[in-house]
Amino acid sequence: MANDAPWSVSKSAELYQIRGWGEPYYLAGEGGQVEVRPNPTVENTINLFELVKDLRARGLELPLLIRFSDILADRIKRINECFAKAIAEYNYPNVYRGVYPVKVNQQRHLVEEVVEYGKPWQFGLEAGSKPELLIALSAMQDTGGLILCNGYKDYKYIETAVLAQRFGKTVIVTLERIEELDIILKVSDATGLRPLIGVRAKLTAKGVGRWADSAGERAKFGLTSSEIITVVDRLAERNMLDCLQLLHFHIGSQISSIIPIKNAMQEASKIFVELAKMGAAMKYLDVGGGLAVDYDGSKTDFHASKNYNVDEYAHDIVYAVKEACEKASITCPTIVSESGRAIAAHQSVLLFEVVGTSDVLSLQVGELQPNAHALIKGLHETYQGIVGKNVQESWHDACQAKDEAVSLFKFGYLSLRERAEAERIFWCCARRIAQNMRRLRFVPEELQNLEKELASIYYCNFSIFQSAPDCWAIDQLFPIMPIHRLDEEPTVRATLADLTCDSDGAIDDFIDREDIKHVLEVHDVKDTEPYILGMFLNGAYQEILGDLHNLFGDTNTVHVRLTESGYHVSHVVKGDSVSEVLHYVQYAPEVMIEKVRMQAERALQAGEITIPQMRLLMRNYEEGLANYTYLTIDE
Predict the structure, then answer these.
(1) So what CATH class is 92-345?
(2) Which CATH number fits domain 374-451: 3.40.50.720, 1.10.287.3510, 1.20.58.930, 3.40.50.300?
(3) What is the mean pLDDT of residues 32-37?
(4) Residues 423-442 pLDDT 10s
């Protein structure tokens, strides 16, 4: 595509990689706005920008988290259909039963939708703690439901799980530590019930990427081979070996390469076979989580991507289990997976507005005054002499002059006005150097970060710590792009900053076709209309990990379902008010109001404030307590 060709929506789609990470749910519409196809089996789409305008008209301000329920339904359907296809192709003599790990996103409406959409496949839930077990028992009303109990357990946790078997559910307690065996045996003796038991094995096989160290022989959870043998022997002594029915393993989250999964399946399948040979009534093989999400759309083994699809994942698992079991003449188990990220990530998008900008690109070199300082004259000459082939030399000269300006200012030989003039010309030199760099075939290493240094800062109405904590904590990459004006060329290079007063509240790593880029291509912000960005694929972990940095609370959240005529807002969850977040940190708003009122009364008595001023202050204070914690942008 020629460089001088007019900008198009197609170019925007390529720039933001939306076809790579967004298909089949998100696309760049012909009108220049992001469209959502919640149900890929139908052509109906939702214009995301128009949806935001509609929701704002209903009084729901940005930042706004939108959950597309139909995408959640499709993710559950997709993984079940892929396993069904693999089971049919390999003539596997058993079934697949997926479970949703509640820890991925515990929000009630979402968990209830998982249960609703999972009913055709008897989709289950996985609990990693006692509170999550209580959620699972409440959410899964039907008999026959599968609930897996993982994580650290005490007596009450295990007792509740064992008693819940009487509800007609399959509730399996997975031993994560050898000490839990004593607890489960005590519960069995006290209740007179025979528990359903699983063991989590520490495999030597490990995943790849950021979570690779969460597996292996030094993993936090799981039993070693010798500990598994101890479990088998002790259950056999008590004539309870038939209670041991499940083998579980987990080699890490976001496994970007299929090879570690293949290796883990070989090892786990062999352990499963050996347990069956020792007399355990093995019925389930739980392959854990790790099914990755392609956040950058590159289809590679990069940590923010994956080099396989769900279909290949399912086929490799089914094949490995069948081969091991048939070779040993062992009954093939029900295959279980805990693919929470792959289920929940796609359905959620965070929308936020740019509320201000800061940039050096608008600076201009003023007319050189006859009595200008020699350093200013030298910078002028450097600026005028910048051409394509001498950018490195010009950069050295500009940097030296800037350093000299700071030194001269500190020792009193340069005024503040002159220092400001030197800095202004320096940044103009940097801008011209960057423009000339684009014509070079080779860019010197010291100039490779210049584009980032020149990037504008776009201040955005959201909190990274609340809505995208993994960006800050583990440098997670999420697709970020404008949801409108895609038919216009984005001429600004920017980094993003949130509302918090923390320097870490910024995003300067973005997805790219090859690796990571440190600026985002955006449009100039107009005074006449809002400029709205979307952060996509953030439905896993972000909501529950978010914190109250600077007391920015939960955002407004809506659930949207597709209809034949458009869409239906099925649930609205209002974001936190200031009063609500103050309660979290043990403040009583009514007491605060009274304390401020008393100060106002003293100021009034002292003649420091008038009654109208006092009334205005108290009204603003009380309204502030009731308002959304984020900025309210006047349209």
Answers:
(1) alpha beta
(2) 1.20.58.930
(3) 98
(4) 999 999 998 898 888 777 78
